[in-house]
Amino acid sequence: MGNNLLGTLWPAFVRPQPDELLSSWLVRLARAHNLKVHTFCSVTWPKVQIWNRDVDRLAPRALLDTLATRTPTPPERVWKTTLASYAGWLHARTNPRGHAEWILPLGIYHRTRNRYGLLFCPHCLQSDGAIPYFRRKWRLALSLVCPHCEIYLHDRCPQCNQPIVFFRQELGRKSALPDAPMTACFYCGFDLRYSSGQPAPSALVQQQTEWYRILSEGWHEQVFYPHLYFDVLRQVAKTLFSPSLFGSDWQREISQQAGAYLPSEAWQVRPEHIALEFWPFIVRKALLQQAQWLLEDWPRRFLAMMKQYRIASTPLLRDRKVFPYWYESVVRDHLYVNNVNRRFKEFWN
Q1: Alpha-carbon distance 148 to 67, whole Å?
Q2: CA atoms of 247 and 232, how far apart (whole Å)
Q3: CB atoms within 10 A of CB 123
Q4: Residue 288 in contact with residue 153, Cβ under 8 Å?
Q5: CA distances from residue 78 to 26, 30, 59 in whole angstroms, order as listed
Q6: Per residue of the chain (349 residues), what is the pLDDT tens digit?
Q7: What single-letter DSSP state applies at residue 154?
Q8: What is the distance between the alpha carbons of residues 346 and 50, in angstroms, rounded to a whole number?
């Protein structure tokens, strides 16, 4: 089997499913060859470290080239299994060091995962039938619900609260091959396909559908680079979570108007210097909905709320050197406060 793996075509290759995540595809390839995941990878890429990194974000070029050659799958399709392929769409460029904007962190320590960086929809996994797989969109911080199934996504095993680490099912079983489906929790064995599906509000389903549309098409003709919209969505959400405004009358008013309320646990989270990707799911869900609501009917609703509660430009332009012109020009033209205009009530009308 080892020699065959190094040949022109793998004897039992499988192609990636629609929107399949690279790590999910690798596990399915290993199982198709009746090999343990780590054996399959060490034989194929003997000098490449794979599972002690976020392979979906930082896949080595040698790994991608081999997959394109041995399966065979067009190189551009192989590339589309990686999170790095979101560069230019979700964010301007891939950051090989540190966390990446809008990509959920895994909290990697050796081969363990300490953070809830992979989401899943149990109904989608069920509908996959005999070939369940994990989607690329389930690694995104903007993914909250499944727009197809209209239920909330899960970010952990509902039985034991452990992160989803499907490639670790071999843990503690040195000789035996995995005999459970890839959807089984690596820690307690619970089949994730049978997790309960909590219905999501129709408004949130519509928002999720719109975010995915923007990700593939752009916001509209004037803002046709998707990452420019997501840069602003992220900044507005961060402003809502800023220490000086979090829990203020302004934020509470937006919660009520947007119909997105922060649960009581959210008030225990300290927002200082915490990137959006590290926010708990319940916090991220509420604040992204609120930010989306502020950006609708741009810029009328946004300016009305800022002026009503006298929110100046400082928090809206904090921590980022460059903003899209359509956002920065509105903030500077209408909300920039100096020593002269701060004294006049007309400025806020």
Answers
A1: 30
A2: 21
A3: 16
A4: no
A5: 11, 16, 11
A6: 444 455 588 999 899 999 999 999 999 999 999 999 989 999 999 988 899 889 999 999 999 999 999 998 999 999 999 999 999 899 887 776 778 899 999 988 776 788 999 999 999 999 999 999 999 999 999 999 999 999 999 999 999 999 999 988 876 566 666 778 999 999 999 999 999 999 999 999 999 999 999 999 988 877 788 999 999 999 999 999 888 887 789 989 999 999 998 877 666 666 556 889 999 999 999 999 999 999 999 999 999 999 999 899 999 998 888 899 999 999 999 998 876 666 556 666 6
A7: B
A8: 60
Give me 15's structure tokens.
């192609």
Token pair belonging to 328: 């920065």
Single-letter residue type at 33: H
Which tokens hold the place of 322?
């460059």
d(CA 294, CA 301): 6
Say if CB 91 and CB 102 are below 8 A apart.
yes
Contact criterion met (CB below 8 Å) for 254 and 262: no
Please compute, for residue 346, the number of CA atoms within 13 A of its CA located in the half-sphere on the CB side.
3
Helices (H) and strands (E) in the chain, counts: 13, 4
The answer to whether 309 and 240 have CB atoms below 8 angstroms apart is no
Question: What's this model's pTM, rounded to 2 decimal places?
Answer: 0.92
Distance CA 5, CA 13 (A): 10
Q: Give the largest CA-CA distance in the chain.
A: 79
**Facing residues of 152 across strands?**
145
Type of residue numbered 122: P
Query: How many whole angstroms separate alpha carbon 83 and alpha carbon 58?
Result: 8
Burial 85-97 (b: 16+ CB within 10 A, else e): bbeebbbeebeee
Distance CA 11, CA 9 (A): 6
